[in-house]
Structure formats: structure tokens, C-alpha cells
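Continuing from the previous page of notes. For each protein in this section, the sequence appears first, followed by its C-alpha cells. Read the first protein now.
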Amino acid sequence: MAMSHPSAATAAAARALRTALRGSVLVAGDSAYESARQVWNGAIDRRPAAVVRCADESDVVHAVRVARHHGLPLSVRGGGHDWAGRAVREGGLVLDLSEMRAVTVDPAGRTVQFQGGARAGDVLGATSPFGLAPVTGTVKAVGVTGLLLGGGYGLLAGRHGLAVDNLIEARVVLADGRAVTANAAENPDLYWALRGGGGNFGVVTSMRCRVHPIGTVLSGMILHPAERAVDVLRGHRDIIADAPDELTVLTGFFGGPDGRPLIFLLPVWCGELEQGRDLADRFDAIGKPLAGRVCPMDYANVLGMFDQAVVDGRPTEMGTRSVAEPTDEVIDILAGAAHEATSPLSGLYVHHFHGAASRVPETDTPFATRRDHLQIEIAACWEPADDGEKHRRWAREVSQRLSEHALPGGYPNLLGADELPRTVAHFGPNADRLLKTKDRYDPDHVFSAVASLDPTTTDPGD
């Protein structure tokens, strides 16, 4: 691709930023620009006008003000793992928080504060020495802030809810350049909106969350051949039907070392170990696995089990459907998807939502899908040299087959920018309140790179 040269507005903005910021400013032609515009999904190829690598909240404030003064659209990058690439807006200014990863733990108060670019591994690494764990997703490399803003399914959902359910306070730089605190007492409507309403309200520079006394858990990656998928998934259904809060079970499939799909079960028991000792017997009853067994493990090791699947630069397309229960029809679709996968790098990940997560009233946070359900993450991944269309088609067909069995809406963190009706359906009775909050804190819709509820937003920067 031919190198583009910064426009007059971009050059002027870059000069203004470089005189005021502690961090760096990159434009086309700078040696680090090409790497700075890349995100996790290798299918995303966008050229922002500038990338601002912020060093602190003050940098974010200056960057927002300069971008508005020069008429540059904004997007925000934390971990860079949004599959749709909304962190990088074509021709816009990227506020890159990836170097803002500091973490501070208050072990007595059982809280943790982290900057907007912190990854799950950063937070867990800081809390683990105190026998504490945050509620995050399932991969250490993924940014906590972006995950939390959309909800945050994870391995502790049954006992401690979603990531959003553990947010105490956030610092936010608004569209007018003001930095504010949002919590239950200060800017409470903004605090409400941040807990599942997405990144449309400002730049979150730090968060303070509850953490929990979790060290050793009962867990294990249990692997079965795909030929046993129906039996394994039915066994999984029997176990989760009466699962206590302490047990959350992730299941699905991914490609094995020889390229053939494997069905996996990843239970996490985070209660008293003696009370969970019969778990191994219940999973053994499903049938003899190829590998793996439930046993005591350090929770930090459990959270790292999928790290190797998150490879920077690998093209990806994702989809999401949620089902109330794993009926025989749903199980057949999942088993069929495993056999029909067009790439050994693709997978399905079925997240277990129950217990504490399901007891939060639907209007307490924007995340309204509070009934027990399974969130099915459809991940088509392939090598950069492959033609991606067949892999994309596989993901879309799996999603379509599940649609007639699915709950309304879908998980916003996995919905594409062209899926506005499903986003609105997910927010349910909270959609109107979100729109009003958006109008209050960002009336000019400066933060529109993330898919929003605004039907007039036709260029979401995807």
C-alpha cells in the first residue's frame, strides 16, 4: 500500500499534541505507525490519521480537546481485541491506552484499581499474591476495560457475576475534555451506563473493582473427541442444570494438535474445595476423556488456558447467540458446527450464565439479559494466506442456524457494527435510558466508533 501523507489538519493536531503530551504521537511515515495501527484481528486494515499513545489521564484530556478542535473523529484502543476493529477508525485519531496498565491493590478493602489499558493478566498478576482474583474474561491478554464496558462473561459468573457487576468507580474523560468520576454517588447515571452500555460515553482512563478471595480452585481442561460431541454436551447439560453458584462451566470446541476438532469442558469450582470433591466423578461419568481431569489448580493457571488461541495478526470473524438452555436441537447444531468447521483454528465457546449473574435485576445495569442462559461465542479464525470467505460463511451459517433457538439480542462485545437491532434488543427496557445518558454526556456523538444505539450513526468506523 502506498504511504499516505498527513493532511493539514492532522499535521496541525500532531504538532499541538506533541508539545503537550508525555506520550507519543504517530502519523503515517513515522517508523512505529504501521505497527501502532494493527490490532489483534489480522483482517482489520485501517489507516488512522494519527495514533496517540497516551501516558496518563492528562494525555487523554489533551488528545480529546485537540481532536475536537481540529475536527478529527475519535476511537479508543485498550487491549485492541475487539474483533470488529472498532478501536481503529479510518482517518481518525486513535487514543491508544495500551501503555496505561498500572494496577494498585487494596487487599484489606478487597478492591483493585487499574488503568484503561490494563489486561486481565496484569490485574490477576497484581491481586494473586494476596489470594484475591478479579472477575474478568477467559484470556489474560484481553483488556479488562473494554470487556467490562460490554458486560464481561467469565469463569466466576455463578458466584460473583459479570465483570460489570463488580465495578465500583471509574474515571472518564468526556467529549468536552473534562475528566470526571462516576460512581453510585457522583455522576450516578454515567456510572449506570458504563456497566454494560459500551464505550460510547467517554474515555475510561481507570476503574476500581471488587476482587474476591480466590486462590486454589477445582478445575481442569477435559478433552473429548468431536465424535462424542452430542454425548459430552448432553452430559454438560445435566451438570449445569443444578449447578450451585460456586460452579461455572465453559464448554465448546477447538482444533486439536492434529487439526481435528476436540470438544472441551472447563469447569471452575470456586467454593470450599471439600464441598466440590464430587465434581470429578460427575465429569468422569460423561465418558473417558482423551485428556484432563478435575483437580486443585491455581486460578491464575486456569485463566491462562486459552492464551495460545489469541494470536495477534490472525484474521477472525465472530458471532454470538444466546440460548435459554441447551436443547437437543441446539446441541445438534453445535456438534454439527464442530464437524463442519472450515479451519482448525476456529472454535465455539459456550459461556455459562447463572447464579449471582442472573440475580441482578434487569434495570440495575444496561446489561438486561439476566435470566439463566448460555452465550455462544462463534469464532472463525484462519491463516493470513487463506481466502477468508469460506471461514466467514461458516460463522454466519452457524449463527443463522442458532437464531431460531436464540434469545433476543446478543452480547454487544461480539456483535458487529451492522447489528444495531440486536444491540437494541439486548438492552431491552434500558435502551431509552442509555440514549438519554448518551445525549447528556456526549450530545455531539463524538464517541461513535463503537456501535451505538443511535440510529443516525451510519459510519461506526468498523
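Done with the first. The second protein uses the same format. Note its length before scrolling.
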Amino acid sequence: MFAEAIEDILRDQCTPAAVRTIEAGGSPAALWEALAGAGFLDLLLPEDAGGAGLPLPELYPVLAHFGRYAVPLPIGQAIAARALVAPGTSLPAGLLTLAPALRRSADGSIACPLVPFGTLAQHVLAADGDQLLLLSGASAQRSAAGVHHSQVATLTWRDAREAERLPGDAAALAPLAAALHAALLAGAMTRVFEMTLQYCNDRVQFGKSLGKFQAIQHQLSVMAELVAAASMAAEAAFQADGRTPRLLPAAVAKARASEAVVAVANTAHALHGAIGVTEEYDLQLLTRRLHEWRMAHGSEDHWNRIVGERLLAADTSLAEFVRTA
């Protein structure tokens, strides 16, 4: 129900033109209000706290839609943040994102490197050991990633006393962010595959559509396998009873989804040919997000290492570890 309602809003409000406008520095207010104003930020809050009480498995299709439409706002992060803080803890209504890491310097400053949507976030929620910190984007010094239309930025606060400590589950931030970005990647890759398949069926070369050539069919088949595997892993990460995913399934999901990005994006652009690299064509709105979200909160190397460490520490066989992970 919620996924369908959100997709209706995204179809109307998050058009490719709207994405381009926000990426170019236009106001995100209309799109943010369309989603936040409808109450979707509180999806994971219990009903007695004014939320929707959405079970975690039902959050996956919602996040996948955000990826499918290349939503240029941290709406998924804002939803996730409300699951991290203790019940009854209020969070600001503005654009809020999650920091992958927090570093303290000897001069008393705080830095959050490579924050997704850090270029426009009004608030940042970060884990500082076993505590959650809420930081204001208005007082942050932002250093953009330097990539064309990237929304990633490193944020620095000169005075650590500006941070507000919030009660909540700081340890759950990393696995929730990993699962969240795995879902975003799965949704975006699904849309990229659909666009590529449609183009190959429509584009005629040497008297027949590209999709009729065996070499093209092979590339599409591999692409479909990668997207399906990433989607299954991402969905599995949300199969938990609580409000946040478990670490190991989230690690597997982010590793599998991130690993698929390069092959999926490269194949999509290759099969689209010259049109696929143009700024006017919508494919690049998605593939740029794929590369950005691949690195968000750790690439496949980071999460594969966590999975490997868990395997080495487990007192069980590899087959049993895979079955129960």
C-alpha cells in the first residue's frame, strides 16, 4: 500500500526534469514536501507514536522505488533515522541524512567524510561510538566530492560542542545504512535494465532489433542475473522482526549490490551506444547514482571483509554459514 502510494507521488513529482533541476542547484522543497508532508518520514515509527508501524520487510519496496526514480533527496535516510533514535525522540523535519563515519580532531573539530546527500542536507545523524549525534548542516563547512552533479560532500564542524546527543541505537546505523543503499541500488539497477532491454528491442540494426543478436542477448542475460541477485540480497536484508536489519544480511546485501554496479552500468551504456553517454538521455541520471551509492557507507570491499571476518569467527562449516547468514 505505502509503496504504491509513494510511487504515485514519485511518478508525478520526481520526473527526470525535477531530478535535473535539483542536481543543478534548484530548490528541493516541492519534492521534499510532497513526500515528507504526506507523513512518509514516520513509516517505521510505531502507531502509538504517530507513525505507520510499517514492518521492516515492507520498507524494501519503498526504498527500491527511491532508487528507481533516482530520488535526489535523502528521504530514505530520514525514514531510517527515525528508526535509530529512541521512541519519543524528536528529529528535525528538514532534509536529514546519515553519516558513514565520524572523526574527531585534536583541535576539537568533527568531520564526517563522504556523506551521501551532504551537499544539501540540513541535518546529519552520525554514530559516535555507542552514541548518536545530531549535527546541523547550517554550521558545517562542506567540501564537495568534485564529481559532476555528485551530492556527496565531506562536512566539518569546528566546534564539537555543536553536536546534540540523542538516545538510540548507534550500532544499528551502519547495517541500516548498508541495507538502505542496497535497496536503492537494486531499484536503480532494475530501472537501468528495463531501459536497456527496451532500447535493444526498439533499436533496429541490419534489418532486425539489437535484441535479436546473440551477443546482445548474452550481455542482457548476464545483466539480468546481476540485477536479480542484487535485488534478492537487498530484499533479504530487510527480513527481520525489529526496526533495523541484522549486520550480516545487510553486509551481504550491500556487498552484492555494490559489486554488480560496474558491470550493470557499463553494459547499459555499451548497449545504448552513443546515445547512452549523452546528458540529455535519462540513463545517466541512474548510472551516476549507481556509482555514487556503490561507495556510500562502504563499497563491496568493505562489506565483503566484514562477511569474511564473520565466517572465520564462526564455529561452523561454510555451507552452514551460508544457509544461516
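What the second structure shows: The mean pLDDT is 94. The chain has eleven helices and ten strands. We return to this in next week's lecture.
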